[in-house]
Amino acid sequence: MKALIQKLVESIGPSGYESTVRDLIKSEIGSSANNFEVDALGNLIVRIGEKSAEGLRVMLAAHMDEIGVIATHIDDNGFIRFTTVGGVSPRTCYGGRVVFVNGARGVIGGDRPDSPTAMHTIEQLFIDVGATSRENCPVKVGDFAAFDRPFLDLGDRLVAKSMDDRIAVAVLVETIRQLKGKQIPHELVFVFSTQEEVGLRGATTAAFGVDPDLGLSVDVTGVGDTPKSATMEVSLGKGPTVKVRDGRMLADPRIVRWMADTAEKAGLPYQMEVLEAGSTDAAAIQLARAGVPAGCMSIPCRYIHSPSEMVDYNDVQNGVRLLVELLSKPIELK
Amino acid sequence: MSVKTKTPQAPVLDADSINLLERLSNAVAVSGDEGEVRAIVLEQVKPMADEVKVDALGNVLVTRKAKADGAPRVMLAAHMDEIGFMLVDEEEGGLYRFATVGGIDVRQLVGKPVWVGKQHTPGIIGARPIHLTTREERGRSIPLDQLRIDLGPGGKAKVGDRAAFATSFRQIGPSLVGKALDDRLGMATLIELLKHAPENVDLHLAFTVQEEVGLRGARVAGYTFNPDVAIAVDSTPAADLPMWDGSENGKYNCRLGAGPAVYVADGATLSDPRLIRLLAQTGDELGIPYQFRQPGGGGTDAGAIHKTRAGVPSISVSVPGRYAHSAVLISRMEDWQNTVNLLYHSLTRLNRDLLAQPR
Hints:
heterodimer; A: 334 residues; alpha+beta; 8-stranded mixed sheet; 6-stranded antiparallel sheet; 27% strand; globular; B: 359 residues; Aminopeptidase; Elongation Factor Tu (Ef-tu), domain 3; 2 domains; 6-stranded antiparallel barrel; 9 helices
């Protein structure tokens, strides 16, 4: 799976501009599915199987988009001021590199700080693409960019920008591959969603269109296993998580039990996740139409929303195994 | 094979257009109480529309069919409501405590005349004058709970009445000056486009309520129309004044006189890239001035519409205006005309091929 992960994380898809990632996902799924659809907001919807008498229509969601920046002003000397797309902290910007959707690359510099310890605000940062004037700057107001950082393979630990949420995209693509040829009682609707980082927008409309009986998102979650980290009962390498709650969702308790029981029976490691802030596509699915039982499986991740997000490869593989177990049998919510 | 017909002409704004804008600007329609403006809209659109209805929240929904079947269904939205005030408590002597409705900078309120209620009863937002305040007091802005609307003894108003800034519309040289041009300019634009409706699209016009308090009307209007494409037509601030220290102004949002402001991203919507291309190419090829609004916060009706049902490709286009959300807004006639031009010609070029391209 590492090759797939590398391709996914080295593609760029800031919110609203996910088409490169979408094309890559399509080609990676290839003949493992044959029902592809792209909806009005750019979500890629892949359907597998038919709903049998004992089956459900299950929506699975992983978002294609990543955080990034948008050019707001090109100054007289060709420096680009920018605003953020999604949760970008100025702490992770200075000295970083970005790549624009149009291919232009640049580095992030900043105004001279007021004091040696002061942190730049986003307004005090700029992108230097090597231009010397507004006229020769290859970027115009409104152009989108993503952070630029190569994939790093540390063995069990994998590092990249946009592990949030390409690692979950990889998990779903691999799940589709492994489900090929299996008898599945469900209609499985894999949604590779757009605009999650700006407010779960793609999943909101996709869930309306799909109208599922059950919804499950796959995303990353924070951890409490680094020095002086916030207290959180999730660690890298101890398995994918079963989300109980996050900032915008209380997972359906029946889904929490179904996920945990399935992992126990299959002998797969898992962790219970209580996330205090942030949310996932499942929060949007849960509130679609007349309501949908929803839950989430997360891959634990360090340094989320930095250009170096770290996950554990075993968690990723166990995430695939758990999803295959969950989806290949009839689901009884109780 | 297509038959070459005469080049479509965008509506030319004339004295009638300005008169209508003046009536719309002078009418009072604070969020939730849009009846006065709605009456003008209904009177204007009824002779030209195939269908007109007022929905449960008070939106005016207008349909004008294309000449051919299977045409793209395009929703244009402009909001009827404006920012203002609501009386919340009556005190003695015709003084009323009030709340703000929508985004209002309380620092701007002292000394402003207002119109209260359906009768436009004149009132004044007052405060203690300079003679009786200390230097320290004058260094602070006066909080809302210390301000009152003064209607005078026997002033006819009741708790719950709305009030708006008492600013009469004027045309001054190249400028349009008035209150609530956010978004009466958008409404007037929609009416012009209905008068000269492009024949290749089904036009679904939504004159929406409660935009200023959270895009509430547009949300249900979008659900009803369920369109193929949506364009919100609004007004956006031009913060294009020179910097006091002579440095380059890098946060102007948009500029007066530089044409309609096309949205790439705001706080509520990431515009559909296909629609950005359509508008930019239309402007470039026909020489219609336009500008990209600086990406940032804020939101228009598109923020609600694009998330309705299974999703709607959406974008916003605004007429630039200085001093937005104050007692007076200044826009340029040429920007308004160019907004009409850009929208009209973009609509005539809109077809299903555009939507068949992946986003």
